[in-house]
């Protein structure tokens, strides 16, 4: 079965079923990752001098134990006759989060339109790691829009990219690596060394997909403004991959995003992103539409590419 048809099948399963309510494979993987971290990540205070250098190797070992066996299992199962195509479609389905993204973002926009700021703050708190209790309406809309743009890359289009490149093992490798980055890739005392490998590997795996996503956002929105924001604003962002995605997305939407935000009690002076009016509920909906149209565009490209190759 062609890669394009398998990709359509995975996207269709996500649209019809959404995230599994029970026995989600990424939840089980998260539990495994937490146990590995407890086993391999020694307390920050325990290391002095050169001994601290070994922590990166502990993080590399934990990453290998978490990711490689499952990636190899996905490869072996995908090679099975007759059943391999089903395994591939299910692997993509498990990695995608398009429907879930909408299920989280739309209630934020609806609460803002209804004037229910407290509800909107609570709902957007499910999407972002920043503190939301004191955000005003524009701050809530900004946080939700940023989350949709970034997760549209990480949890949707980048997964589709690696599926198209390497099939089931590719999407499993990417999604597990991205999950470990979300769990271990913090720059703090606990994870600065142990999470180094998870953060760097995710940066590498996301480098090309993030730029293709930024280009996709630009092509499907205000192209000139998106490209200008990408060129001028992305280098100022602390993440090499989130910068292009969010700058181009903000420019494509004509929204002003970025700016200061509080994370874990600390104020982070983030640069501004995009141009135009302050974020509002419409920008949340428009960001979702941008991601959805991006998925359809990529599926079309896969189908045309598969046809020409055949």
Automatic annotation (TrEMBL):
Pathway: Cofactor biosynthesis; adenosylcobalamin biosynthesis. It comes from Zestomonas insulae. NCBIfam families: cobal_cbiB. This is Cobalamin biosynthesis protein CobD. It is a multi-pass membrane protein. Converts cobyric acid to cobinamide by the addition of aminopropanol on the F carboxylic group. The chain crosses the membrane at residues 60-78, 85-102, 155-174. Keywords: Cell membrane, Cobalamin biosynthesis, Membrane, Transmembrane, Transmembrane helix. Belongs to the CobD/CbiB family. Coiled coil: none annotated. It is found in: Cell membrane. InterPro entries: Cobalamin_biosynth_CobD/CbiB. The keyword Cell membrane applies.
